[in-house]
Amino acid sequence: MVYSLFKTFLWVAALSLLLYSGSLYPQEIRFESDDLRSNILQVADNYARNGDFKAAILQYYEYLYRFPDDSLLPQIALRLATVYQETGNFTVAERHLKEAIAKYSHTKYDLENRLRLAVLYYENGNYEAAIEYALPQPEEPFRLVELYCWIQLDETGIADTLADQIRQGKYCPEIISEYFNLRNSDVAFDWKKKWGAYTMSALLPGSGRILIGEYKDGILTVLGFGGLIKVTLYTLQNHPAFYYYAATGTLIYYGLNMYSTHFAIERYRDRVMQSNLRRLLRIYPLSEQLRLALPY
Questions:
Q1: Is the whole-model pTM more than 0.85?
Q2: I need a labelling partner for 209 at 20 to 30 A (CA). Which of 2, 13, 140, 155 fits?
Q3: CATH class of the 35-186 domain in this structure
Q4: What is the average pLDDT across 186-204?
């Protein structure tokens, strides 16, 4: 009885595999035409969309080999550069983009190629190179590349000026309004730490700076104040004639501590704002702001 049921189960399982075997294997690509060029390109794009970049690269190179004078070469160069960038091979991607810029400057892909090169430098963390490349470019989108780079380089003042210029121009993506909303808002600032730093520095000079992350200067200030207190008490007990000078020096030190705490809080505010701006850049990727969709 048990053997019979087990045998029936095996037959049902085998039949199910036969019926649904098509779902166990990848579907073949259905070519849209019999044209070899479009078929190679379709296969390459399909590989790229599915993340098989090595196979896509081979197909794109086959296209270049078979059709060296084809009208679609500007697109192929752009696709190759993008795929290499996806693999993290920025050097080869840069080479393809530079070749495309040199060869196809008269085509409709010229601006996109130049923008992608600037974005390539940016995404590779080479912000100075991105700025150097973007500065002489006349088109407004390159100003956005500069803005992103200046933010990453902690040059918020330059970024503010540039953002204002972009806002006054015709090219104004959504990140500019978000940028100014963040810059003009105190919501993102940690008020507890701000007033905590003032309070702690008032109670123990230097401790407030430790609270907001300036550990070295804060500890040195605490030690310096402790040393002055000891000197003041020592002069009071042993050299009363000098007590006035020691006490005055301690009070001046205390006042300078509060003064330096104020500027430390301003620096902390800048660090918080810088962190928020970088988070904003992650929410609004540069390629999306420049309307640079994947070309495949």
A1: no
A2: 155
A3: mainly alpha
A4: 85
Would you state the torsion angle of the CA atoms of residues 50, 55, 58, 59, taken in this order, to the nearest 10 degrees?
-50
Residue 162 contacts by C-beta under 8 Å, 6 or more apart in sequence? 143, 146, 147, 150
d(CA 210, CA 200): 9
Query: Could you state, in order of their start, the residue ranges of all structural domains in the chain?
Result: 35-186, 191-282
pLDDT mean over 256-278: 91
What percent of the chain is helix, strand and coil (3-state, nearest 5)?
75, 0, 25
d(CA 113, CA 130): 14
Which of 276, 271, 278 is CA-nearest to residue 182? 276
Query: Residue 119 class from Cβ within 10 Å (0-12 exposed, 13-18 middle, 19+ buried)?
Result: buried
**Contacts by 165-172 with C-beta closer than 8 Å and gap 24+?**
166/140, 169/140, 169/143, 170/140, 171/140, 171/141, 171/143, 171/144
The model's pLDDT over 46-82, given as tens digits with 9 standing for 90+, comes to 999 999 999 999 999 999 898 888 888 888 999 999 9
pLDDT of residue 163: 93
Query: What confidence score (pLDDT) does residue 17 get?
Result: 43
Stretch 259-282: mean pLDDT, rounded? 90
Cβ(196)–Cβ(181) under 8 Å? Answer: no
Residue 222 to residue 205: CA distance in whole angstroms: 6
Does residue 15 or residue 136 have the better pLDDT?
136
Tokens matching residue 209: 């700076």
